[in-house]
Amino acid sequence: MAFSLEGMRGELGSIMATSKPGLGVANDLCGACVDLLGVDGAAISMVYEGSSRGTFGASSEASRRLDEYQFTFGEGPCLDAAVARQAVLAPDLDSPSEGRWPAFADAVLSDGIRAVFAIPVMVTAACVGALDLFRASPGPMTAEHLAGGLLAAELASLPLLDLIASTEPTGTAEDSWADLEGLDRVEVYQATGMLISQLDVDAPEALVRLRAHAIATNQTASQVATAIVERRLVLERDEPGHGGSA
């Protein structure tokens, strides 16, 4: 069913009014994007200081995994959208002229996704993330669908505001983000701490090694982190990213 912009506005507004606050409304908003915007998946990425900090809301586990690739590889449209504070559109990741995010693009294409669109999510003057939209078939978004995506990204700031309000920040934006970091990818932070001790490295090096193993074994960073935390995987000191099998 095709929706006009006003129709999309009404549907999205209804979702915001009737869904459970916080993560519930974020998930429902992403699901509504699939129904309204001609895409096959949607996720809300939290981004801070140029890095992916978590997935807050997704239309499905597959969409959550697609967003996870951006954290794993440290590249992707949501990161660019957050930095530029404008929509980043990739209508055909398999096009010879599309050279952005090679690692991310390879992973997403392997999952059957050809087009990705990212729209920044703003809270007042700060960009806190992006709404990622995924589609299996290549091609640009229609003007109406893009307008609907911009509206959805604007509404996506509301559950994030609810999330911030529900924490106990110590007074600064940086402190609030530090509180939010613990709400997703907890296993990554736990695994990084374990690797600091096991490998005798600092935190950045520990995260590099975790990501390297994820890339080498075709997993997400969260999958590798979970295996480390559960002690099913031990990374060797002299082989970054190549320890036991997860």
UniProtKB/TrEMBL annotation:
Keywords for this protein: Transcription, Transcription regulation
Database matches in SUPFAM superfamilies: GAF domain-like
GO terms of molecular function: RNA binding
ANTAR domain residues: 174-229
Domain of life: Bacteria
Keyword Protein biosynthesis found: no
The name this protein goes by in its record: GAF and ANTAR domain-containing protein
